[in-house]
Amino acid sequence: MKKLGLKGNKFTRKSRKYSSYKGNIGTVAKNLINRRFRTNVCHQKITTDITEFKCSDGKLFFNPFMDMFNSEILSYGISSHPTLDLVLEPLEETLEIVKNSKYRTTMHSDQGWHYQHKKWVKKLKENKVFQSMSRKGNCLDNSPMENFFGLMKQEMYYGEALCTFEELKQKIERYINYYNNKRIKQKLAGMSPVQYRIHTSQLVA
């Protein structure tokens, strides 16, 4: 690109990174994942985080749940405010998906107040899900989600005109569908996350 005088236009504007950390207000779990992100088992390791988008009429907060097995987004929450429901509602969807998993699931997050909250902790315990947290101020401890946020924003947000909350919500919904079902990954043998999950389940069967 340098030789041809080309310049990417997706890296010119960056949104401020959202931080939900408010100190120790509840339960701070151990870092069980400890950067061991790889797994050959579907639904064994799930990671989640919140990111912020700027809209023409305010802000949008996005909270996806990703399976580290194939990087598939299992569920997500979208809201104009970073409320507790932003994480609890998609958590319910995720727990329903992983309830019949072969191995016990570990849920990994940062130390944001949502993930320290007693309702979050109680819900994980009720469903026999291990809780894992990144160390304070260490984004590399949750690099799979950080990488996804960067990829997503480069492909459908940066360099684009600001749109309304509802318009951006629809763009995100379309992107997640594309990402899960059509966007191929080299580490998944050239398949999309859903294609890889189906392919591997057929091999096991």
* Average residue pLDDT: 92
User: Tally of extended strands?
Assistant: 6
Uncertain regions spanning at least 5 consecutive residues: none
Question: What's the helix-strand series?
Answer: EEEEHEHHEHHH
**Main beta sheet, described?**
6 strands, mixed
Question: Based on CA inertia axes, which overall geometry fits?
Answer: globular
The fraction of residues in strands falls at: 15-25%
Summed up, the helix count is 6
Tell me the span between the first and last alpha carbons: 46 Å
Oligomeric form:
single chain
Integer count of domains:
1
| Rg over CA atoms | 17 Å
Which architecture name does CATH use? 2-Layer Sandwich
Structural class determined from secondary elements = alpha/beta
Helix content: 25-40%
CATH superfamily: Ribonuclease H-like superfamily/Ribonuclease H
Q: Kindly report the CATH topology.
A: Nucleotidyltransferase, domain 5
CATH class: Alpha Beta
Structure description:
Pfam families: rve, rve_2. One of its GO terms (molecular function) is nucleic acid binding. This is IS3 family transposase. It comes from Metabacillus sediminilitoris. Residues 35-201 form the Integrase catalytic domain. The protein has 205 residues and is an alpha/beta fold. It has a single domain, classed as 2-Layer Sandwich (Nucleotidyltransferase, domain 5). It is built from six helices and six strands, in the order E-E-E-E-H-E-H-H-E-H-H-H. It has helices at residues 85-98, 113-116, 118-126, 143-156, 165-181, 193-204, and strands at residues 45-48, 51-55, 58-67, 72-79, 106-109, 130-133. Strands 1, 2, 3, 4, 5 and 6 form a six-stranded mixed beta sheet that branches. The mean pLDDT is 92.
